[in-house]
Structures are given as structure tokens and as C-alpha cells.
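User: Show me sequence and structure for the first protein, then do the same for the second.

Assistant: Starting with the first protein.
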Amino acid sequence: NGTAYNSPPSSAITLSTGTDVAVLGAYNGNIAEILGYNRDLCASDRIMIEGYLASKWNLNASLATTHPFRNYDAYTSTFQPRDISGCQLWYDGADPSRMTITSGSNITIWRDKSGFGRDASANGTSPATYRPVTNLFNGKMAPYFSNFSRYNINSFQPSPTGNFTCFVLGRSDTLNTSDSYIISAQTTSRFAFFLRNVSGHPITFMTSGIPVESTFYTSNSVPFNACVMMTTGSNPTRDIYVNGSLYATDTISGNTLNISSSMFLGASSATSPQMRGNICELIMYNTALSTVDRQ
């Protein structure tokens, strides 16, 4: 209950659950929850876990009167992309702790938060810079791609036959004069999620060189919260959602996701065309999400 009552053992111990090792002292009672860590927690971490357990099991009043979580809960559960199964990539532009930043603002590595370690490493002439998004997103900082920023994604290729869903929150620069590629694998059978260089710079999704183009336009620095989804089968379906609304859908024949090359962030390939604007966050799943999960 948050109070120290003894000193830790001086030698290694053997653990069992509900009994002793020799099966002589079986436990009689409830085991509500057990947590174990492979390190000695610092005081602040221990206090947080004590508060978590007390609030979850309605035992706050059992904590010491000086305990910071005796009178209120230690945590509030918030959604994380990994709460939905199948998360394969997650680049979080609001989390600079997952970036290697040099020369004040240059992002040389943008680390993947999916748990698979698929980090994006800069190989362009000018890395994306970490800076405030002008007049948008409540002044939050986010990576800005300058049309010369290009990243290789470490050891990742979408399944050649599986479904997938990809989310991107970003903003196009008004100075765009070419296609702006957000993520792609530029091979004979191409996979690409980009802003097309035609009037309005519509959000576009391409597989096998066949594009499906939305009617949502990103010119004039309009921010976008976009989702592209593909359901494979004999007649694959491709959908584009922007800000929660369906802006494009089509059905094409054959396997349209045959990727055998590296993936790129902020560019179409090892050269151009490249992204100009902000990529604030990118999340990809290896499944076509249900409506509830997508929303």
C-alpha cells in the first residue's frame, strides 16, 4: 500500500505462483493482478504502479495518507495505434524523443513506434526539419519535407498479397510544383500514396501504376487527415478517406500489390519526385480495418 515494510533479499530467489516451490504452502485467497519487471523500479515508477493498481481495484483508501494517488486516479487510458492489431509502421511527428535531430532541427532518423524497429533514415540532400507548423495544428512542431528530403524505411515491405490500411496526417506546401510522394515503393508494380501534381493537388493512391484519385484537394496549405485502404481478392477494392469521409473508391482486377523493393518516406524512389510540406504522422496496418477501427 505504498509503505516500505522490509528490506529486499540479499540473494537470488525462486518464484512460483499460488504456492511455494515445494508445494507445501498453497495460497488461499484471490490473486487479482501480478506485474513483474526485469529491473529495479525507481521511486516515481513504483508510485505510479501502486496508484494504477489501487485505482483499478478500488483500493485508493488503503494507500498511505501521504501517497500522491490516495485521493485520485494515477492514470487515464488513452488510445494508441498499437491498440489495434496489425500495426506495422508508426511515425509520430509529435514525439521528438523518437527522432535523431542534428544541427538544431535536421531529422536524420525518424524512429518507428510500431515495435518492429522499421526506422526511417535520411538519405536525401536535405533532411526534413523539425519546426512549428505555420498557423496550423495549434502551433505543434512537425517534420517539414523540403522537396529534397528522402528517407529509406528499414526492412519493410507491405505483404504482396495481403490487405492494408495507411493513415497520414499532413499539410501540402503551396510551393509544390510536382507530385509529392508521402510513402512509396517505386518498382514496376508500384505502391504509392501521394499528392498529384494537377490542379488542386488531389490525394492519390497507386498500385501497379494504376492510380485512384480523390476529390479532396490539398492546395493552399489545407491540412489533411487521410486514409487509404486496400482489400485484396479476385477484385481488389481501393478506398481513400479524408477527414473521415469517403472521397474515392474503385475495384480493379488481379493482384495489384506486388512489392519487391525498399520503401521510401517522403519520396517516390532514390531520386525524385519528393514531398514538399509536413508529414505529421503516418500509421500503417497489414489489414483492411473495419469501419469502427478506422474511425
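Switching to the second protein now.
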Amino acid sequence: TTSAKRSATPVDRSSFVEYDSGMEHSKPFPNPAPKPPGGSADPEVTVLITAHNEEETIQACLRAVMAQDFPMERVEILLIDDRSTDATVERAESLGLASLRILKIVEAPVALTARQTALDLGLREARGEIVLITDADGRVPREWMRELSGHMSFRDGAVAGPVIFGGNHHAIARYQSIESLVTFTLYRLLYRHGMTTGVHTANVAVRRSAYLESGGFAAGGFNSAEGVALAAILRKGGWSMRYLIDPMVQTSDSGSVARLIRRGRRKARCAVPLINSLWLLLRATKILLLGWTAL
């Protein structure tokens, strides 16, 4: 696999900086991925992680990525730090991963959400053609990289998997997991019928060239449901999608009922296209079952 050409639309480099602490690693990772021979060849796969104040989880996330049953010499890890005020970057960098590259966003986004901006930057700056995306609090299973990249065909713009939640608040985690799995099932059902769908951006592989050719998030505009926006962009660009029931990625629950409610309100505002698609699907099913008298 060869790396895609860089976007025709240049990235505004005034809004981010490439991180280089210059510090000596005091606690190197036991098995860092080697750099490509000569240091010039692009990797085939990029793992894209976006983070905002994730100092408590970033090292566990990176360790899970490095534990993959996949040839890590073909992989780069790209961490996009979205204006963190804690030690997220320092803790990531202290692992001493040769394959880790860090970009720091230093300005607030204007036209897109913060998450869209971070994902867009990562997808444009990635050196691999296949970009696997997860959250900084995500725990990816050992087969994650192999399964997502291995199931991507030449016309697939994305391969998506389900997400569950964990944490100290078991009731909240259980509720969010059920909600997430139901939503993922709905995504798969709607996609089969050619309707508006989405992906969980904590567990998805994206073909970089497909994203760039489709115009990126800028083509769809501001949307706080970045998974729905991403799917719409790729579908509009003529790319197919693939949904897998495994592997499953775990992320952190909301942590409190108040945060869960705020999250629910935000998702509800973005659910109109999915609700319309589901209504049309149910309507069509009713017509098929009961005949035209159902109209």
C-alpha cells in the first residue's frame, strides 16, 4: 500500500505546532516500533488519537496500540492534542515510542467543532493510507488493527466497529454501552437501505485518500455528531462503508448523570437525519408488509 498524495488544500499550519520536547526518555517503552529503513519510507497505517486533557488515560491507550498483533514497523501513531492544559503530551512522550508523532492544536476552531478540527488535521497529516481512529481513553483489543485494516476493500472509504463503555460508574457505563450498541445496529441497518448512517469515531478505519477526495469535514460543515458527518462525506464522495461486529473498543463512561444528560442533549440535536431515515425505512417496511393501503 502506498501513501496517498497530500491534500490539494493546504493545512493551515498556523493553528498547530509539531511537538518536540527535546527531553531524554527516562522510561522507554520496552518494545518501541522501529523506524522505517532510511527513515524516509511512509508507513502503511496511521493510528490517529485525539486528546484533550487525557493525562490519566493516554499511556494505557498507547500501550494497547503497541500491543497489537500487527507488524508495528508499518505503523505510525499520530496524537493530536487539542489544547490540553494537563500533562497529556508529556505522559505520551515519556513512553519513548519511536513511531509516535504529536501535533498540538494551539488555536480554537472556527468553522468546525473541536473534534472535527482534530480529526481533520490528523487525517490530512497522516502518513499512512489507512487511518485507524480511536479516543485517548480508548482500550483497543489486540486484533483491532489487523481486523479493521484487513477488512477494507479497495472501494471502502471506512470500516467501522462497535464501542462500549467502562468506568467506575457501572450503571452509567451499562446504559451507555446499550445505547451505543443499539445505535451501531441502527447504523448498519440504515446503511443497507442506502440511508443516512454514521460511525463511532472511537473505532473506525478511514481511507485517507477517500476522505481527502470527498472534501473532508469542510465539505459538510459544522456538525457535533462527527461520526454521522464523516459517513455522509464518504457516501457523498461515492465510497462504500463496511460494518464489523468485532473488534469492540471500550472507552470511558460519562462519569456522572449530569454529563450523561448533556451528552444526550447534544446527540439529540444531531439525530434528525437518522430519525428521518429510520422513519422512511419503517414506512417502507409497513408498505411492503401491508400493501399500498398502508399509505
